[in-house]
């Protein structure tokens, strides 16, 4: 009797473990569960643990990324170890669906961090950049973005989810160095509110925060960073490289629009390839991704280059804010948290990617649309689908749980730099 009971308990544990390893999906294809399983169990370049069909599927993707980035097995192992850590947390969140977490650290504006908290976070970033065993973990993570840049991570609905997962992975890497840090965001609407010609003197780009904003970065925590492609980290903030229109920081009005406008209620209305919304300043179709582009251009130099951009740590502070703005939207359309927003993933991949209609990017990147398909594996994160990037689990992993829509934007506006 005892042994039967033991057996029963064991079986339960096994079933429990199994279901933990196989998160529920909206649409679980053979490809997705194979890749998920492969990533989850990946710990060396050996794939003998996979059945032959799955082995081929996985190795094709593994080799494609490895060759494109010219990474060593050690670098690939590192990326997969991070993805696995992210997946483990995801599944933990899934199992604790209704549990409210207390005492969880929340991401906040970088300028509102205490000196100690900012020192800890920036210190971890600098540590990540320090080469260990012949590689910089920071550069290994940054390079991954270049692989995904043109095809999966931009110009469509996966932009939001892809970058969210990417931020979580980066945060995971930082937490392996210091468990008490979370990302902070650069709310560039604050700097936008400074009169135009004074924006370049923002404290954000000073020795106290991200380092100087023009030329080689020679002060602050990220001074003299070397880029993997050669050269030093450099910026050219608030310079009108494209004087017409000049680069703009994130506009508070756009944040308000997506966070509070009651007529913008689906993801299709904020992503590229969808219907977009009307830009109050230009009257043109606009999206949250396009608004994010502007700040990249405003920072200039490395940040302006979609492939090299994560080489500037400001990339992650900016994206953390873009992720935050998206979260304001998500909470607006799902205030009670009872809608699975994976089902609101726009199925727009057969439409023109460029809503202005002047360039059909499908001609340049013939498969760009397909790469954004809801149930396609998220590029570089084979164990996750594009649609999964919209799930609540990733929100809850993003240290955004304490977000409250009401009052947040006002707080920003009255915050003085
Ligand atoms: Cu990006």
TrEMBL record:
A matching Pfam family: Tyrosinase
Keyword Plastid: no
Parts of the chain that traverse the membrane: none
Signal peptide positions (record): 1-19
Statement: the UniProt record of this protein carries the keyword Protein transport: no
GO molecular function: metal ion binding; oxidoreductase activity
Domain Tyrosinase copper-binding: 154-171, 312-323
SUPFAM superfamilies: Di-copper centre-containing domain
Keywords: Copper, Metal-binding, Signal
Record-linked InterPro entries: Di-copper_centre_dom_sf, Tyrosinase/Hemocyanin, Tyrosinase_Cu-bd
Superkingdom classification of source: Eukaryota
PANTHER family noted in UniProt: TYROSINASE FAMILY MEMBER, TYROSINASE-LIKE PROTEIN TYR-1-RELATED
Official protein name in the record: Tyrosinase-like protein
Organism whose genome encodes this protein: Pinctada fucata
Gene: PfTy
